Amino acid sequence: MTTTVAIVLYEGFDELDAIGPYEVFETARAFGGEIRATLRALDPTDSIVASHGLDVAVDGTLSDAEFDVLVVPGGGWSSRPEHGAWGEAERGEVPNAIAEAHSSGATVASVCTGGMLLARAGVLDGRPATTHASALADLRGTDALVREERVVDDGDVLTAGGVTSGLDLALHLVERECGADLAERVATELEYDRRAVYSSRTTS
């Protein structure tokens, strides 16, 4: 059975936070893995402008998608810009969508300051989590159990640190869903050296 991944985009998201995991998932699919990723927006639109100005086409809205895993990128937190994770946390629509997806049974995962959106959604309460180093102090101000790790796997909630850690997150998800051999094959194809993942499922 194919694992479906929805990567939710919003104005000002960091490009690599979303596109890095997307390439990992789609490379795994090209190698025969039963996994499929799409790029989704909350509202109908053809494309969304990311933090460095890249205009990214989307596959449709999140509400029209059926997905097993929701990936939330970060971008735009520390300087409190209108567009980016901070602005979305203040507006509340993305956190509400995260909370709804999680309560409906989806696994939710974040990259970088996307973790702050998970925190705002309430899904990190009492759970180990990480985010970009620049936002760790803010994460400590929530009910999350902060761990300074590159990737934290707490079962149905996963968080990753800054930017390139999204590659480790995605490769870890490929390993979880499709097996270690495929994850290693994808990492080799991307010429990427994987980093360790902290998993509360195997660590007391």
Q: What does this molecule look like?
A:
The protein has 204 residues and is α/β, with parallel strands linked by helices. The protein has one domain: Class I glutamine amidotransferase (GATase) domain (Rossmann fold). It is 35% helix and 21% strand. The protein has seven helices and twelve strands. The strands form three sheets. It has an eight-stranded mixed beta sheet with strand order 5-2-1-6-7-11-10-12, sandwiched between helices. Strands 3-4 form a two-stranded antiparallel sheet. A two-stranded parallel ribbon has the order 8-9. Helix 3 packs across helix 4 and helix 6 runs antiparallel to helix 7. The mean pLDDT is 97.
Secondary-structure-derived class: alpha/beta
Low-confidence stretches: none
Largest sheet composition: 8 strands, mixed
Order of helices and strands: EHEEEEEHHEHEHEEEHHE
CATH superfamily: Class I glutamine amidotransferase (GATase) domain
Counting DSSP E segments of at least 2 residues, the number of strands comes to: 12
CATH class: Alpha Beta
Order of neighbouring strands in the sheet with most strands? 5-2-1-6-7-11-10-12
The first-to-last residue Cα distance is 31 Å
How is the quaternary structure best described? single chain
Per the principal axes of the C-alpha atoms, what is the gross shape? globular
Mean pLDDT: 97
Count of all domains? 1
Q: Under the CATH scheme, which architecture would be assigned?
A: 3-Layer(aba) Sandwich
- Number of helix segments? 7
Here the CATH topology equals: Rossmann fold
Strand residue percentage: 15-25%
What's the Cα radius of gyration?
Answer: 15 Å
| Approximate helicity band | 25-40%
